[in-house]
Amino acid sequence: MTGMIAPPAIADRDLQAVIDLVYERSGIALHAGKRALVTARLQKLVRAGGFATFADYLAGVKRDRSGEALDALLDAITTNHTSFFREPQHFEFLVSRVAALRGGIDVWSAGCATGEEPYSLAMALADARPDLAERGDVRILASDLSGSALARARAGVYPIDRVRDVPDEARRRHLEKGLGAQAGLARVRPHLRRMVRFERLNLLDIDHLGRAFDVIFCRNVMIYFDQRVQQRVVGMLERHLAPGGYLFVAHAESLTGLAHGLRAVAPAVYTRRPA
């Protein structure tokens, strides 16, 4: 097609610079075979910034002392695929364990992407323990590296086809169907949004958040890390898990080969022994 400008090609040294930068700041292990992915995801930023080459773009990222350009690069590279009630066995296990709780429950959804996981947690816990939810004793921290993903999560608005995995009763109680200009959309109801606090956090930068969690969901995150970063992240998560609490990872993930003091209690579910 005439008049179209071909996207700039990425030189080997620039590709390696992106790989190194992403690994250093996010722990995500890319490799040279991801050339097409890196090019596709970053070329919009290259064009929007008026850069002629990827080398010019990377130089601009390094010059930006605000950090916004680096954040945009990481946002573009980060994969934010998720869904409501993904791996439903985990939610069933969670509900079975909170039935007898007398106090509150603190939950961390680490790597929450666009919010489907923490809102699923809020629905499951609100329905299993309405007494705790109504008292404000279900507290969910939802964190992610991607600022754009968190913005969508805070809005709590999803296309109708994205909420198809929410059980019918839960959908009626916790979601609002859009009308008029909002037709085709569903919004998380305010009582559920109040249960979730979204915060931008980099798992590699966390030493201690100053609190322990009864439940941590960190699923489909560590598959992007090499073993060194996995070890670092698992150690950090273990420090944040209350005695007797549960860590959930994805079924495609495993803590095998990593040093930790957790005990497996169900597929992809680990517990910290009581003190």
Polypeptide structure, described:
The chain is of the alpha/beta class. The protein contains eleven helices and ten strands. It has helices spanning 12-26, 35-48, 54-63, 68-77, 88-98, 116-128, 130-134, 147-155, 168-174, 190-193, 227-239, and strands at residues 105-110, 138-144, 157-159, 175-177, 185-188, 196-200, 213-217, 241-248, 262-266, 269-272. The strands form two sheets. Strands 6-2-1-7-8-10-9 form a seven-stranded mixed sheet, with helices on both faces. A three-stranded antiparallel sheet has the order 3-5-4. It is globular. The protein starts with 11 loop residues before the first helix and ends with a strand.
Name the shape in a single word: globular
- SSE run: HHHHHEHHEHEHEEHEEHEEE
Largest sheet: 7 strands, mixed
Rounded mean pLDDT is 91
In terms of per-residue confidence, which ranges show pLDDT below 50 for 5 or more consecutive residues?
none
Helical fraction equals 40-55%
Spatial extent as radius of gyration: 20 Å
The number of helical runs is 11
Return the structural class. alpha/beta
Name the descriptors.
275 residues; alpha/beta; seven-stranded mixed sheet; three-stranded antiparallel sheet; 11 helices
